Amino acid sequence: MKRILLIIVTIFIALVFSGCNPNEKDSVALDDARFEEEEIKYEIEQILFSKSFQSIEPSVEIITNNNKLKILASLGLSEYSGINVNSIVKKGSEINIHVSGISNKNDLRLAVPQVVMELKKTKLKKIEDLKFNIIYDDYTPLKIKYGINDVLNKIQSHFKVSTKGTPIFDLIRINDAIVWDISYNSIFDKENPDIPLVNLSAQVDANTGNIIDSEKLSISTSLDSGHILGYINNDYILYKKTVLDKDTNKSIEQLWDYSALNNEKSMLYSSNFKISSAQFSSDLHYVSVIEVNDNGSELYIIPLDDKRAYKISFENKFNPKTMRWNSDNILYLIENNDDNSTVYSYNVKNNDINVIGIFNKNIENLIINNDNFLIVEKTDNELNRKISITSDWDKFKPIGNGANPKFLNKNMISYLRKNEDNDYNSLFVYDMKAKDIISQIEGNILNYEILPDSNIVYVDKNINKNDFTLKKYSLNNQVTNDIAHFISDKIYYDENRNLVYLNITLPFDNEKTEMIYSLDLSKLN
Fold first, then answer.
1. Hey, which bits of 281-329 come out as E strands?
2. CATH number for the domain that contains residue 468
3. Which residues are paired to 162 by β-bridges?
4. Measured distance CA(178)–CA(209) in Å, rounded
5. Which of 197, 388, 399, 464 might form a disulfide with 220, Cβ 3.0–4.6 angstroms?
6. What region does 90 belong to: left with phi over 0, alpha with psi -120 to 50, or beta?
7. What residue numbers bound the domain in which 463 lies?
8. How many domains are there within the chain?
9. Could you tell me which residues come within 8 angstroms of residue 175 by beta carbon, excluding any fewer than 6 positions away?
């Protein structure tokens, strides 16, 4: 009897608790029933068809909440010529955005439609609690299995390539298939032992992941590993490279030159110490080298006819940091101390050494044109340097503030100036007769060279991108033309042969090896 009574009590308690906890689904249905639908007025500010493809799923993002509720609605990947927002309906904490697609067979595009709109006169207390839904009235979203990141990883693995930048890509339709269309410019072919630069194009099925078409085109010649120290327009490259001495198992530095005239390279000098800088003399008969060792820096001269380097000794302890040849094969050298700079001259023909003077300036650089000297002076806490000109090393006439000055011709000087607001470099042209700036090239200019016709070729860093554009500026008509895009800013232009030399660090190499390439510009355009 007690056992039967216990069973009855247990069943009764279970019924009581089940009555107090209705089914969760029924609870949601009852909650939804409490709210009436409210149509929300809205104003569309912008409709665009995004082809970034970083996200192809539908989503809604609140982009501002300053007394106005603006949203960005991404409708998901589709193939339409246009879209309509039919209505926006609020029910409880949910806001449903009803959309439909417009199909014009002559203007269909695979893209992610995005709508920026403002919701008008809404009484929404807690914006963060809102749930947005995209409701497809007459709109068919497309599904793909392989996103852009999956495809790029597959391509780089399959073709054994490495890149520093992002390729150009798009989604296209080939018959009934949705296909990723990928184009890489100037990437490293790791499968080739010379590691050339190639252009690679490929098409990958977005649902099967199969590579259905591809083409790999070599655009470069690998000249050597090394770091470029000097370049003579259309003729010679001076570079250094680090190699391992097999006998001592220690690293040594070598100085090499490459002749574009006969496509040959030769070693000029080898050292157990660091080669800081090297320069050709104006007649190309000598190379000067500043070598840094444990005791300071030393100067060596290499006659190119026999390539036997000899050391230049100074009476006083002199540590040259900067050097520059003039047109008469006289080498000017600068030593910097805390408060002053000492300038020497060395005549390579008669071996004469002269002290030009000791100056209360921190001279960083020196540019020579006949008897005129451009002086670049470093100052404390200044973003730009002081640029002045002298012909007698007594009177210094100010030119402006900037860096990397050059003589365009006997009357004009060019230099870079950094903008203190955005940290970008602009290029200025200064007329010494007019004593004024006559031209200014805007951009983010990293370096530049003067061509024999006094035109300017310069490297511009592309904003928000990981590449650079080589541009040519005509001084006569003040017109700029793009030459090509590159993945390095160390670009040396050979106008006669329509090619460039590119110096770049391999992005996949732990040793940070630098390579020197020649690139045929006709293959890039």
1. 286-293, 296-303, 310-312, 322-325
2. 2.130.10.150
3. 188
4. 11
5. 197
6. beta
7. 367-489
8. 3
9. none
Q: Quote the tokens at residue 283.
A: 């007649």
> What is the model's pTM?
0.83
What is the tens place of the pLDDT at every residue in 319-349? 999 999 999 899 999 999 878 999 999 999 9
DSSP state, 104?
A: -
* Residues sharing a CB contact under 8 Å with residue 369, sequence separation 6 or more, in sequence order: 407, 410
Last residue of a domain, one of 138, 167, 186: 138
8 Å CB contact between 76 and 141: yes
CB 294 within 8 A of CB 327: no
343 burial via Cβ count (<10 Å: 0-12, 13-18, 19+): buried
Question: 330-336 and 322-325: which strand pairing?
Answer: antiparallel
DSSP state of 180: E
Task: Kindly state the tokens that stand for 164.
Answer: 């520093």
Cβ pair 262, 251 in contact under 8 A: no
Distance separating alpha carbons of residues 187 and 351, to the nearest angstrom? 48
Q: What is the dihedral of CA 469, 470, 475, 477, to 10 degrees?
A: -60
Question: What is the separation of C-alpha 384 from the centre of its chain, rounded to a whole number of angstroms?
Answer: 23
Residue 34, SS3 per DSSP:
helix
Q: What CA dihedral angle connects 394, 398, 403 and 405, to 10 degrees?
A: -70
pLDDT in tens, 367-402: 999 999 999 999 887 889 999 999 999 999 999 999
